[in-house]
Amino acid sequence: MKKEFNFTWAALNLLGKSLYSNAWAAISELVANGLDAKATRVSVFIDARTKNDASIQIMDNGTGMRDKAIDTYVNVGYDRRDYYYHSNSPTEAQNNIMGRKGIGKLAALYLSKDYYIQTKTSDSAPTTWHLASDTRLAVKPYLTLETGIVTDAIDPEWEQSPSGTLLILNHVDLTGLGNVAFNALSHNLANHFLSSSMQSQAIYLGLARNEKEYNKHEFHKVEKMIAFHNYAMILENLSPENEPKEIREIKEHGSTVLIPYPNSDESKQTKVQVSSFSSVKVKDRPSYQGIYEISSEFLDAKILRLRQDVKIVDGIAKIPYQLTGWIGFHSTLNNSQAQQNDSNFRKNKNYNPAQIRLYVRNKLAVSNVLDTLGITQAFTNYIEGEISFDLLDDDLLPDIATSSRQGYNQLDGRWRLLVSILRPLVRSLITRRNEISKSLRQDITETVKRAKDIAVRDYGEYIDEIPDIPSKTKIEVKGMMAMQLKGEVEAKQNYKIFLSHKSDDVRFTNFIYKLLEQRGARKTDFFYTSADDNTEKYNDITSLSTQIKNNIVDDKSLIVYLATPLFKKSEFCLFEAGAGWATRGIEDYKIIGLRYEDIPQYLTNGKSEFSFLTNSEKSIELNKRTYLYLIDLFNHLIDHINKSREIKGEELVERFDQPQFEDAVQMRKKGKTEKDYMDPMVIDYWDTYVAPGLAEYLASITTKESVRP
Questions:
Q1: Which of 193, 205, 403, 676 has the fewest CB neighbours in a 10 Å radius?
Q2: Looking at residue 602, what is its pLDDT?
Q3: Where in the sequence is the signal peptide annotated (predicted)?
Q4: pLDDT at residue 153 greater than cutoff 50
């Protein structure tokens, strides 16, 4: 028996690619199908032992599919909600069915062209259907009923469940997804569904990246990891039964949060404020709950008659709406500081907490609606939230989802209504964050004043105890010291990186400069005389030597010395080294040596430094030793320039993940090299800026005479 799809392979391929941006989005769609089938348990097992030929099993214990449901499955575009309304089953239609257009099954086709569906109901035997790819794009794919096929379900719950559906996807290509992406899968999958909707349902995830993990067949419950205890203020509109327990605990216990002082390891303990959406009142702005009006002539008359919550007045349909959920702002985005407040906090390239997730019918509709609000104020990137606005997908109203189903038509009145409600809420949080920042700065000012007053007092007492100094002289000396100590001091705000180098050695400094710039650093974060894309340095009429001197003496500049044989022969380089040594402690600058003997001894002061070449190495390679040092160096530089961003409330430059190299035996068993554990961005920039012509460079520098810059 065959069940033919109503579209060709070519059409389905195009639809799938337009609907899903990545494998995780497609997997979440298949999980939603199980939840819509009233499953209490949906499990996902990913066998990624071979990434380019992985397999995925998705099992649910829902109602399963009878033969008629299989007919519906191959009917792309089938609207189940519309069917329920027109078959006089409005309760089913309004029961928060996530799907609308019958395109969720395309998620399976996006992931695989070879998969099995085994399904069973409480009153029928299991049936197994198979879809296999066809190279003829003009052909319509079909499901074939298989007999005698034994499906090996990894989740043991499948055998115990009287009904449900098991989907086995073969030959899935997960190339390009590293360990960090896999580790973030559980959190990202959890974020695809509204917490309050999952109280009687659960998702479980199993992941096998090697034989050991595969043999365990372990499943872990997928749960959200939201750092509620890192919030300094929360706005909410939630019923008691839907309120996260963490927010309830904060309200009940009067919790406090540590907010760091700018450019300091010290923090201020601040009471967390929890308020309702109704506390934010803006004149001439719509409320978070109200009535949406539209002419009834544009609506389906049968659905309209079945909707008891909708009133018709003078031909105008009045549809009730409500924005529910919570929005908060983080006290800090620094990982180590934030985790002191809440160990759940994380921020890396695969997860950014600075987002307001928009849910419609309990399913993630827009991953970050914050980007669409047009708010550019400082601290916007400190905002996180989860909101629900089902009016966007009300059954009475036209479908306004974009073709990718991952956004909405922003010209529609419903979307404009959402934005007009949301903007004042976000701005009120930013206003509160600015008030806290002002309070922190005032605390610092008062602390500095007290310290200066104490210093003046103690110094005065010391002067008074010195014999043989006339009283008039003592008064003059104490007055002069008071004026010096109480003088205004400019607050540090602009933290820079000074790349000290010989122009012949730019392959290394260009590597650092270009890589960090791509990471998110700005040109103004550097003083780098060899930068080919920074014209500002030529606009300053101050001489180059004066610029260099000012940047070295400025204690907001972190100096990185690139020491080579040519560096030691350069007048400018030796000047930079001497000035840095005279104005800084040895922990306040970084030294990279081509060889250990190239590093000026007065700079090291006995401290161990890094060199690209050792006694056992004759060439420079991006190996484990070099990579570990570079990651530490990059993160140190990123932490330095992030101090400016922390002070100004700007988005931080993301640190590099610490590599987890396995030993040589494990790498050999897995057929891996050291570069498989390195960040691809670092490899790309090394191969572009350092590696080309490196052998010739090394051969020439030991004999090449210095050329004055």
A1: 403
A2: 57
A3: 1-25
A4: yes
| Helices marked H in 560-652 | 571-583, 601-604, 624-648
Q: Which residues are within 8 A (CB) of 180 and not within 5 positions of it... i.e. 6 or more apart?
A: 348, 349, 350, 657
Contacts of 314 (CB under 8 A, 6+ apart): none
| Amino acid at the residue 531 | A
Residues 562, 500: Cα–Cα separation, whole Å = 6
The confidence score (pLDDT) of residue 164 equals 95
The length of the chain, given as a count of residues: 709
Mean of pLDDT values over 46-60: 94
CA distance 76 to 5: 7
Which residues, at least 6 apart from 330, have a Cβ–Cβ distance to it below 8 Å?
227, 230, 231, 232, 338, 345, 353, 354, 382, 383, 384
Closest by CA position to 224, among listed 173, 253, 186: 186
Q: Are β-strands 356-360 and 363-366 bridged in parallel, bridged antiparallel, or unpaired? A: antiparallel
- The span from the CA of 14 to the CA of 91, in Å, is 34
Q: What is the mean pLDDT of the chain?
A: 82
Return the DSSP state at 192: T
Q: Are the CB atoms for 293 and 314 separated by under 8 Å?
A: no
Residues 6+ apart with CB under 8 A from 690: 507, 508, 511, 620, 622
- Nearest Cα neighbor of 478 from 491, 465, 496, 497 is 465
- The confidence score (pLDDT) of residue 508 equals 92
Residue 476's H or E segment, with its range, is: helix 471-485
Q: How far apart are the C-alpha atoms of 705 and 161, rounded to whole Å? A: 79
Give the whole-angstrom CA distance, residue 336 versus residue 332: 10
Residue 705's pLDDT is what? Answer: 43
DSSP symbols for 142-190: EEEEESS-----SSTHHHH-SSEEEEEEEEE--TT--HHHHHHHHHHHH
Residue 102 scores a pLDDT above 60: no
- Reading the block at residue 521, the tokens are 């650093």
Radius of gyration of the chain measured on its C-alpha atoms: 32
Backbone angles phi, psi at 130, to 5 degrees: -125, 135
Residue carrying the six token digits 């639809």: 15
Residue 390 has pLDDT above 60, yes or no: yes
pLDDT at residue 571 greater than cutoff 70: no
Rounded Cα gap, residues 201 and 588, in angstroms:
54
- The contacts found for 292-297 with CB under 8 angstroms, 24 or more apart, are 292/318, 292/319, 292/320, 292/321, 292/391, 292/413, 292/414, 292/417, 293/317, 293/318, 293/319, 294/319, 294/397, 294/413
Sequence-distant contacts of 654-657: CB under 8 A, at least 24 apart: 654/347, 654/348, 654/349, 654/519, 654/520, 655/335, 655/348, 656/519, 656/631, 656/682, 657/180, 657/348, 657/349
pTM above 0.70, yes or no: no
- Digit-coded pLDDT (tens) for 606-642: 455 677 776 566 788 899 999 999 999 999 999 988 8
pLDDT higher than threshold 80 for residue 79: no
Angstrom distance (rounded) from CA 397 to CA 482: 73
CB 228 within 8 A of CB 246: yes
User: What average pLDDT does this structure show over 119-142?
Assistant: 84
> Is 90 exceeded by the pLDDT of residue 477?
no
Number of C-alpha atoms within 13 angstroms, CB side, residue 411?
1
261 within 8 A of 267, measured Cβ to Cβ: yes
3-state SS assignment for residue 496: strand
pLDDT of amino acid 520: 92
Per-position DSSP letters for 325-373, written without gaps between them: EEEEEES---HHHHHHH-TT---BTTB----EEEEETTEEEES-GGGGS
Neighbours of 249 (CB within 10 A): 12
Q: Average of pLDDT values for 575-579?
A: 60
